[in-house]
Amino acid sequence: MAPKMPIFLLLTFIAMLFMSLAVPIAADSAYKWVDEKGVTHYSQRPPPDRETKKMASPPAPDKLKMPAESLNMRLERLEQEQAARERAAKQQAQEEKQQAARKHNCEAARKNLTLYKGNPRLRIGDSSGNYTRLNEKERHAHITEAKQQIEENCD
Fold first, then answer.
1. What pTM does this model have?
2. 48, 50, 83, 142: which is deepest, by most CB within 10 A?
């Protein structure tokens, strides 16, 4: 007894067979003819009482015949674009970091300038924890330095 093939597989095979036969027939049957009014017609069947011209089907576009060299060039271009985007993102992050540091320095310099201008008897602590009062000359030097930092860091 022969093994039974599932009906689904059999029907699928038959359908694929008919489709494979129908495609070449449909692709080769195109006709061009002119009627009595001079109008050009295109059809799959020629009229019985007219002279017709059988037309060749245009070749199917072959999208896979792209040369390997152009694929490699495209890949290289895409890699270069990706590297450029990464460099730009890195540079933007660095610029944002610098801008944040400048903003912080600007705020600190403005705060220091306010302190130096508003308090002539300002005391400053050193690294050992000792506090000394600034004389007028030292206070003006700190004011000048704070103004210079404001010019450098503030917009």
1. 0.46
2. 142
Q: Which two tokens stand for residue 74?
A: 């495209």
pLDDT tens, position by position, 13-64: 777 766 666 555 545 577 787 888 888 887 787 777 777 777 776 666 665 5
Do the Cβ atoms of 32 and 40 come closer than 8 Å? yes
Cβ-Cβ contacts under 8 Å for 26 (sequence gap 6 or more): 44
Alpha helices in the chain (DSSP H): 7-28, 68-118, 136-153
Measured CA to CA, the distance from residue 40 to residue 36 in angstroms comes to 10
